[in-house]
Amino acid sequence: MKVLVIGSGGREHALCRTLRRGANAPARLFCAPGNAGIADSAECVAIGATDVAALADFAERERVELTIPGGESSLAAGLADEFARRGLAVAGPTQEAARLESSKAFAKDFMLRHGVPTARHRVAGSAAEAREILRGGEFGGEDSSVVVKADGLAAGKGVVVARTHAEAEQAVVEMMEGGRVGSEAAGRIVIEEALTGREASLLLWTDGRDYHLMPPARDHKRVGEGDTGPNTGGMGAVTAPDVLDVQTLERAVREVVEPTLEGARAERLEFRGILFVGLMLTDDGPRVLEYNVRFGDPETQAILVRLRSDLFSIFDAVARGGLGSVDVEWSDDASACVVLAARGYPERPETGARIDGLEDAAAVADVQLFHAGTSRAADGSLITTGGRVLGVTATGPTLDQALARCYESAAHVRWDGLHYRRDIGNFR
Q1: What backbone phi and psi angles, to 5 degrees, belong to 136?
Q2: Digit-coded pLDDT (tens) for 316-361
Q3: Which of these, 278, 286, 205, 275, lies nearest to 237 by C-alpha position?
Q4: Crossing angle (nearest 10°) for helices 311-320 and 10-20
Q5: What gap in Å lies between CA 292 and CA 345, rounded to an integer?
Q6: For a tag on the chain, would you pick the N or C end, based on fewer CB atoms within 10 A?
């Protein structure tokens, strides 16, 4: 069996390593384009994640039986559609279904059509229209908090939780006129009421009909301790029993997950893959903050270290419509992932620094190191090539024990400019 994973980050490293340790591990595992850590688990292929035609050509030429997209960019580019046209199995939704992530406005309208609870919102097609909405009083007075979102994909950086309307207007200008997230992502802006409560991430596999839930997770988006500084792609994530209590989980499934899947079927959105639901647990119940159509990063790392079942079998059933016949089992442990980042992340991360100490870091009990932004220098040393460089991930009987193992491991890693949050798991 040959399998192709698409992507180059910590999420894809976790996918490849988990596929390798499964009962039905593929005979050959490819990753396009991969990174230095992934190269220890898979054969890296120099094809970009959005080069859909080249990826399909490769899968045909190598007779790949299953392709697993890691991130959203390839799905938004129509990878699943092109693979289906060529008769190639892929565990990911079509381009139209992927609009649940690639267009915030589409997702919000979808939620309204299908009664999925979410925040009130308006869509603006220009900075002037956004200012008019903000000054109209619909989202409270000038000192009220409001959320500003770029409509399109923005690598986790297209959301600003503004404390005042003046901050919101500044965010609108930076997105729509200042090039903060790119003109394509910010062609439209979504303005939302700011919800209050605890956040949780609920992920699931689905073949369009049946589904399997993953352990609920929580992540830290802001770069600084105490949830300060700009939003990032994610500085750490945890899974633990208190992330989502049983009663709230059942309500989220009943009011969010099942109406979403039913709505996708009703609108003939071919959704086979992973649905990621970002939730705010308000006093009035769970409300959807966003949909993603793939694994989160770093949630993937924290979730997959708890998987006991064979990952290939799950994804194969997703792609071929047989998920109802597959059992999915998890360990009872808690887990945590702490992201080690480069100086300047998320705005202007520095690259090229030599990384040391990984052997000692990996020797800590129940720890796995997932590479996100690494490559090999000419002399064979490991160097940084991205903002998020490593995901130090651990399991433990309790969350405190898992976190202690992460931080014990992280203390061994060294490079010039290394930084990470030391309060992962503290959501107070």
Answers
A1: -85, -10
A2: 999 999 999 999 999 999 999 999 999 999 989 999 999 999 999 9
A3: 278
A4: 100
A5: 23
A6: C
pLDDT tens profile 216-247: 999 999 999 999 998 888 999 999 998 999 99
Domains of the chain: 2-94 (3.40.50.20), 126-187 (3.30.1490), 198-325 (3.30.470.20), 334-410 (3.90.600.10)
Q: How many residues does the chain have?
A: 428
For residue 312, the model assigns a pLDDT of: 98
Handedness of CA 213, 103, 115, 79 (dihedral sign): negative
d(CA 345, CA 232): 8
In this prediction, residue 183 has a pLDDT band, given cuts at 50, 70 and 90, of low
Rounded CA-CA distance 205/320 in Å is: 13
C-alpha span between 40 and 44 (Å, rounded): 9
Bridge partners of residue 67, in order along the sequence: 4, 90
In this structure, the strands spanning 43-44 and 66-69 are unpaired
Choose among 336, 329, 331: nearest CA to 364.
Answer: 336
Please determine, for residue 417, whether its predicted confidence score (pLDDT) is greater than 80.
Answer: yes
Query: How far does the chain reach from its first CA to its final CA, in angstroms?
Result: 46
Q: In the numeric block, which tokens belong to residue 379?
A: 């002399």
Is the CB of residue 287 less than 8 Å from the CB of residue 118? Answer: yes
Determine contact, residues 413/390, Cβ cutoff 8 Å: yes
Three-state SS sequence of 340-374:
EECCCCCCCCCCCCECECHHHHHCCCCEEEEECCE
Q: Cis link prior to 216 (omega < 30° from 0)?
A: no
Q: What is the predicted pLDDT for the residue at 154?
A: 80
Distance CA 52, CA 146 (A): 37
DSSP 286-340: EEEEEEESS--TTHHHHHHTTB-S-HHHHHHHHHHT-GGG----B-S-EEEEEEE
Check: CB of residue 117 under 8 Å from CB of residue 278: no
Closest CA to 215 of 311, 91, 306, 292: 306
What is the model's pTM?
0.95
Q: What is the mean pLDDT of the chain?
A: 95
pLDDT of residue 51: 98
| Three-class SS state of 219 | strand
Q: What angle do CA 9, 375, 77 make, to 5 degrees?
A: 40
Per-position b or e across 215-230, b if 16+ CB within 10 A of its CB: bbbbbbbbbeeebeee
In angstroms, the CA 76 to CA 97 distance is 9
